[in-house]
Amino acid sequence: MNLYEYEAKSIFSQFGINIPPGMRVTKPEELRKVFFGYPLTLKCQVLSGGRGKAGGIKFARDLKEGEALAKQLLEMTIGGSRTESLLVEPKVAIARELYLSVTLDREQGCPIFIGSAEGGIEIESSANVVTVPIPYPYQPYVARDLAKRMGLSGNLLSKVADLATRLYNCFEKMDLDLAEVNPLVVTEGEEVVALDGKIIANDDSLGRQPYFKGWQSKHLVDLSDRECRSRLMGLNLVELDGNIGILCNGAGLTMATMDMVKKFGGRPATFLDVGGGSDQEKTLFALEIVAENPNVDVILLNILGGITACDDVAGALVNFMKKSPESRLVVRLRGNNQEIAEKMLAESGLKLIPDLEPAVKEAIEKSRTLAGARN
Amino acid sequence: MNLYEYEAKSIFSQFGINIPPGMRVTKPEELRKVFFGYPLTLKCQVLSGGRGKAGGIKFARDLKEGEALAKQLLEMTIGGSRTESLLVEPKVAIARELYLSVTLDREQGCPIFIGSAEGGIEIESSANVVTVPIPYPYQPYVARDLAKRMGLSGNLLSKVADLATRLYNCFEKMDLDLAEVNPLVVTEGEEVVALDGKIIANDDSLGRQPYFKGWQSKHLVDLSDRECRSRLMGLNLVELDGNIGILCNGAGLTMATMDMVKKFGGRPATFLDVGGGSDQEKTLFALEIVAENPNVDVILLNILGGITACDDVAGALVNFMKKSPESRLVVRLRGNNQEIAEKMLAESGLKLIPDLEPAVKEAIEKSRTLAGARN
Amino acid sequence: MILVNKDTKVIVQGATGKMGAAHTKRMLAYGTKIVGGVTPGKGGTTIHGVPVFDTVREAVDATGATASVIFVPPYLALDAGCEAAAAGIGLIVLITEGIPPQDTAKLVANTRARDVRLIGPNCPGIITPGETLLGILPGVIFKPGPVGMISRSGTLTYEIALVLSDAGHGQSTCVGVGGDPVKGMGYPELLSAFNDDPATEVIVLIGEIGGSAEEEAATFISERIKKPVVAYIAGQTAPPGKRMGHAGAIISGGKGTAESKMKALKAAGAHVATTPGEVVEMVTTARGQLLRT
Amino acid sequence: MILVNKDTKVIVQGATGKMGAAHTKRMLAYGTKIVGGVTPGKGGTTIHGVPVFDTVREAVDATGATASVIFVPPYLALDAGCEAAAAGIGLIVLITEGIPPQDTAKLVANTRARDVRLIGPNCPGIITPGETLLGILPGVIFKPGPVGMISRSGTLTYEIALVLSDAGHGQSTCVGVGGDPVKGMGYPELLSAFNDDPATEVIVLIGEIGGSAEEEAATFISERIKKPVVAYIAGQTAPPGKRMGHAGAIISGGKGTAESKMKALKAAGAHVATTPGEVVEMVTTARGQLLRT
Fold this sequence. Notes:
The complex is a heterotetramer, with two copies of chain A and two copies of chain C.
Chain A (H helix, E strand, L loop, with lengths): L4 H10 L8 E3 L14 E5 L12 E4 L2 H12 L2 E2 L2 E2 L3 E5 L3 E12 L4 E7 L12 E5 L7 H9 L4 H20 L2 E12 L4 E3 L2 E5 L23 H8 L3 E4 L4 E5 L2 H13 L4 E6 L6 H13 L5 E7 L5 H14 L5 E6 L3 H9 L5 E2 L2 H19 L1
Parallel strand pairs in A: 14-15, 14-16, 16-17, 17-18
Antiparallel strand pairs in A: 1-6, 2-3, 2-6, 4-5, 7-8, 7-10, 8-9, 10-11, 10-12, 13-15
Helix pairs in contact in A: 3-4, 7-8, 8-9
Chain C lengths: L8 E5 L4 H13 L2 E6 L7 E2 L2 E4 L2 H8 L3 E4 L6 H10 L4 E4 L6 H13 L3 E3 L5 E4 L3 E4 L8 E8 L3 H12 L4 E6 L10 H10 L5 E7 L4 H12 L4 E6 L23 H10 L3 E3 L2 H17 L1
Parallel strand pairs in C: 1-2, 1-5, 2-4, 5-6, 6-7, 10-11, 10-12, 12-13, 13-14
Antiparallel strand pairs in C: 3-4, 8-9, 8-11
Helix pairs in contact in C: 3-4, 5-9, 6-7, 7-8
């Protein structure tokens, strides 16, 4: 779950990380209540990246200019994401910019600090980046090692190391995937301040983080309505631009099926992993949400029963076909309780295809026919 | 720092450990405000042990009996410790009593759980005791291992294990030396409740435990006034029943000096470790607090300079002798800056003895003369 | 075969839960030596004829088990894994999906320090066909034979095992390492184990988009692996920036593409298939060449 | 000599603090090879001619130090100790007094897992007379010779070393293990090291009331130690239930008395003195016997 900058900063502040004074604004006239002086920085609150380049950050010298800019910024859409509000802060006198983040490193299997003596950058493409693996249990010397490797010294080393320790505490206590400060600025008064902040909360941990309770739905704004509803049902839906809706159990099998559809000349419309052990209700929901997409001509359901019992899937299919014609369906079903499933579906006239490659080819064939019929 | 039962239970409760409803009472008439029904348990709040045997726990069937008992209990002194208040609780219907504690095991160098399927006992003398070392970082399976070894099973195993995990969390987060529940009772309704609780907070950790800020002075009630004032100055004073006041730097040397005084026929009046690196002010305070004890005829100061600089000690002696005659003093002083110290003290006429055994013998000799003169 | 065989004594943590019980039954039916279940508070009962213990330590003491399959809920998995490691279990197969990745990282640190092998989490487990099954793989699909399989995916492994079995290529052992970004054993250790396993002729490596484990495996293959490797990467047509089902399956910052992985594996001398059907063809070719050499 | 000699390269953590600086100066004067100090934020400066680094890792990389003497404040000691261990320091001498004992327990777990030797906390350190000094012992008191000393006390060690030196019994190495209840190296490891040390003829063990370390040492002595051991226990007249200066020096529940320790040591064949003077006599006797045998 991606958080807005103002949310991330509020969390940082609770862990003792310096942030600039700030105010969230949803209407231009709220600027009158700003309790700190001009010039102001006005920043679009969006979940997408690249805000600065897109013109989502402006500076105002006085209230009049501020209100005009606020009006304009509040209407912006950046990278497909609508501006939720503005974060207004006094303009900071910057002596130096740094980069600092904590994330999990999948290859090393542990959290890492990422730091750079260069701030405000795209960290993936920067040369001056240092990383330090973080052992568990944490001790603050790891942050000092980081600050040292970032080339810092003196008081600045100690201040940045202290902030890095707080950032790690925040990362661990709040179960984050990413806690990033970019840029971390050193002010002309030698204060170390998180000028911009990004937090990605771990989705699997939301259930044990009371702070984030109820936050999920309002943070799925970069997903389509159907992707969003699927996520809230615990399903992983990705919408693509083709006409074959693909549903499978298991992420790898769904990807492989999608790849095969494409390879053999078809065009996938959805990637939908119904997950392992999914029940009848969930499978029905999955079928319906795929069918709902107006681009979908054919639904290719590919279930290889491991945890999933085929009869549960068949039950969902029987229900689905009460409302939707079986003619759009291509079903590959194999695994546990396969015989029961076949019996259940025999009555409906739905033919099961036991092997994947023929099923994929059948779905492509059917999609061409149906797409042709539609045009 | 020993805590009162009501303080310990309040902390337990903050960590999610079940405690009986309770009310602290400092006057008999406060019993009228009790918000739960009779019969009541009235318990003396004292820092010493053996409260039950000493008659410090009574049961009242009604308010009248309660007030009479409260009056009586509030006046009790148990093991030299005055009753601070009463803790009043409803009488619990007990199905079973257990024992549970967390403490540091010095030999294994780690915290341990101590448990027993027998409660309300002197744990040192009980046969049914099991201990489980606690690895760091903590995981709750350790508490289940404990509950299993205590011979528990079923729901009770899970409930006691859960409580043990909370007790450990309390022990770790609050920097305790001991977190003890004795007895831990299973009620007739199968609830697991901490019926009595004992906490010893670690003295060296008080500085980082804001919860305990300002608590120390009111919890030194089992010490004499002089022991208490010394503790607040960071000095370790133990008062004994002899007439030779012993001050040394270092615990081992102080004990060894005390042992030698006794062995050669003297009677130690104080054990005072002025600690390593102690400054002039602290040393002067130490000399004065020893001199203040009316039983002290002779002061034996034994300083072997490691961290301690002899000239600092000499400075304290010079100041001390402005108010107190040097005739009561026997000083053994050796180590860093010894020559400067000798020079400083030469003017006062105080003779320094370089070796310990002669100094001890001199002190004993002098104590006999002075004790004789006094009688 | 690697890691497990018919004599491996196995306990199931979370054996009395819905999923744990169902798969305990299936594993027993497959022939797995399940010697105990562990559910705190249920000690003394039985599940499908297997004794249930309150703690892993008790189960290990009573049965001599050396492996554990874990089905506990996600927030209890770190505790369960540490319990197994502390009780002397040498191989942990962690099936649970949805574990907070920081918990997994802590468990990985714990098992590494104790030299305990961890498979998973979010994985289907291990099968040595005809001998034993630790996890949730559908036993009927797998046949004994000379193909060693390592995979980040569950059902895709079944799919490929199915077409391999149908084509007469049975498997020595199949290991599903799981789809999470942070996990226990990875490709190098398992490639190395298959390389040393006399029962394995050909190694099939099933990867997917996200991370750089396949690129690292490629380096390892070129340096250390003597046996033929057939690789397949899922997500060749996945759009960037989207999480494709598995927590670990995401192309981010231009990294973790199927293209990059396939290129690295090809450069390392592996045979790289684009469909499950091609995997079968390449295994057939590789085994044919082995017979000739 | 054990643990350290004149070639041991030493860093001082907290070298720029008041106490750290004073003892860095004394150690240098004694001849200790202090190759660096560590104080975060003071890197690039010097203290008594020794370069100061920001981190232990940097200091170790630059100097090849293998030992560290720590003088940081109590609540920073766990961090400093872990830093030293992680940077490859093999011997940590932790002088700091007043460390929360749970922090010490965590540091002990960390150093044990890494096979790092930890002396202390709340200890005077180690001296190999005439060679090197790591800590705060007053060098002038100690003389080279064949007596190995292990002690839970600081100044009492100086006292006994003083009377031994005066009587012509110099010391191979003296180790103050510290007065805290939880600590790093204890009697058995050090007894064993002295037993194996060709430069040590007689071992002097200085214990005190509290705990059962001396009783365990007695068992170890009777089973493993071939050299004569002279033991002295402080607190023979200490009242029960009172903490005698050291956090660890307390007789509680009837346990930890000097009587019990002296009895156990006598039974193990050690010579047990009741005053420092008797220690000298017993060492003289033991060395005399060694000469005759």
